[in-house]
Design goal:
The protein is an alpha+beta fold. It contains three helices and two strands, in the order αααββ. A hairpin with a 3-residue loop joins strand 1 and strand 2. It comes from Streptomyces poonensis.
Length: 63
């Protein structure tokens, strides 16, 4: 799941500054729990691929 989302980010599926999938959407698409989806979002944020705005969601980091 994390590798697929990394691939999508690298392939330009999302524009810089665009809102990224929410944990509910990730959990539904990959059929995992929301807590697992949250761990993936945290990992992508720690890698510098996403940033989070409290109360608004996660967004794609520009180059």
């Amino acid at each position: 799941m994390a590798d697929e989302l990394r691939r999508r980010l690298g392939a330009g599926w999302y524009e810089p500054g665009e809102r990224f999938l929410g944990t509910v959407d990730i959990a539904a698409e990959f059929q995992v729990s929301q807590s697992t989806a949250q761990k993936v979002v945290v990992a992508l944020r720690e890698e510098g691929r996403l940033y989070t705005v409290l109360g608004q969601g996660s967004f794609v980091v520009g180059e």
